[in-house]
Amino acid sequence: MGKCKHCGSETGEGELFCANCGARLEEEKPEAVAVKATEEPPGGSAERAVEAAAETKEAEHEEVAEPIVREVTAPKEPIVSEAAAEKEDATEHKDAAEHKETAGPAAEDRTSGAEATAEEGSAGKKKKIGSAALIALAVLGLAIGFSARTVSRNLGSPGERFLAGQFRALSKEAAVLSSAEQVFENGFSSDFQLTTELSDRQVTALTRRGLFSGPYERILRDGSEARIFIGKKFEKAVLNLELGRGDDPVLQADCFIDPDRLGFCLPKKSDKVYVTRYPEVLQELGSESRLSTSMFADLQFPKELRAATVKRYGKIVAAAVNRNNLKTEKRSYRSRVLKPELKHSLEKDYTIYSWEPNAEELERLFRNIADEMEKDRALAAWYDRRQEIGEQFAKASGQHPGRSVRFEDLADRLRDNAETYANRLEDRKFTWKLVTEGREVRAILLQLDGGDTQIFCYERDTDKGKLYRGVKVFDSVLTEKRDLEKSGYYGTVACRFSRWFYTESFALKYSNVDFKKKSVLGLPCGKYRLLPGGDEDGDGIKFEVRNEGANSLYELKNELGSFTLKATKTGTAALPTGEEENIDDELLDGMTPQQGISKFIGAL
Predict the structure, then answer these.
(1) Average pLDDT over residues 122-140
(2) What is the spatial distance between Cα 433 and Cα 454, in angstroms, rounded to a whole number?
(3) What is the pLDDT of residue 117?
(4) Which residues are bridge partners to 275 per DSSP?
(5) 3-class DSSP state for residue 444?
(6) Cβ atoms 566, 193 nearer than 8 A
(7) For residue 266, what is the DSSP state?
(8) For 301-322, what is the mean pLDDT?
(9) Mean model confidence pLDDT for the chain
(10) What is the rounded end-to-end Cα distance, in angstroms, of the chain?
(11) Among the four residues 19, 173, 568, 586, which has the most C-beta atoms within 10 Å?
(12) Dihedral sign of CA atoms 574, 575, 576, 579 in order
């Protein structure tokens, strides 16, 4: 494992490009490439020579990464075809038999020699151990150490190795999303200041409509400020808001919420802080649910549970993949994402692993998963709690939630319909493909109907310093094309989301992006252009993100003027202070003491 010098993300062994920022990693040193593999199947003597040279190099220089062998006809993968595996096993058995036949007499001779040496030693004759014996012992020790390390690295069934490569590739892509999660990982606190500068044309238009006067003018001219605090698990929050900053703001409001109470204060109207125990009030109002922000913590999928779940069910799926249903080929691959969306062809010769289980194997897999689900108490507890919260929210919003599905129901349903599901998948020719180029994963594909229907497709490729990647889930697609120039990275992220009878799309073009410089909200510093509908010919919405000292600036400019949002790295949000007054009874009676709120909103 190493780290990208551009963004600091961890990089895997043998990778050429960073999975997070896409930067090209440093090339391996020429002396690190000890040998080049000849054209033979994985596990051949040339490849073993490469590994041996790599081990020796690592022993001498621990800081040097393992060599990357580029000229390999068959990639150095732990997964082999059934025929190749059988051939290799047969060869090993044959070699072992020959070794046993030839080593027998020699072993006897060595034993006899040892006994003679012992007898001579007991007779008082001192003999030195021969140099050949010392060399043999040293080689044996190295062989044992090398074998132990090689076995620990490559240990596992074909199914485990089949899934491991895909898991590593998708985990690195998910690191981009985890970096966004880090913004709220330990809670979030910031002060936001929004200022505007309208163009003369826009001011004239608003004036003619009678809108550019009074409170509107104050808000646009003086700007607004929001001081925000959000708890680590979203269970509590504080908001201090000023619309039209200055000595006499248009509106001031201080609000807070926690698992038990909700409170607010309007300093210009009253010094009191009005508080309600909202979970009880909502329940008494007829929702039959006790809603609380504590539920947000229960909805989060804990990282420990996530890792345990992947490991637990990954083993079951891996056990279903074997040499009988895993086919290995060396051939070209037809792109389902990059070619149609980014016009980038994957035209090389790849190693393609295809898992094509029959109905009997699929049925056994489904039943094994159902059995494991019955014993999985941790996942069941989280899932059932999530369903309960969904029911309560549905009731509170006036919807009829029906009976939510429990975890044990899912297990029973999977077991009861295992045969039906298996036959259906076999009839539709379910196939799971892994496409690799050397050590790089180029595509992961789950398909039906001989490729006419894609359930899931992930593709990634690099060409002349450019990064292409994309993922397709049924008809929804997300792609990115990225390149590097002196001023920073530039590229395009495009999304097409299809749901039932409508499709929405957008494109985000970026330039001068420095992935090492993150803003307060996590977005890297650079220039962006958002294109609703994905129309690249349109002007779109242009904005820039940059850091100035301890602040981040988000500046948007268009024909209406400019809008600048300033965000600080630390916040000053504070709970409202003053005499508290409980308003539970007023809310239950349908009357609140703050009639001025509705009048103010109506005036706006």
Answers:
(1) 46
(2) 11
(3) 42
(4) 263, 582
(5) strand
(6) yes
(7) -
(8) 93
(9) 77
(10) 58
(11) 19
(12) negative
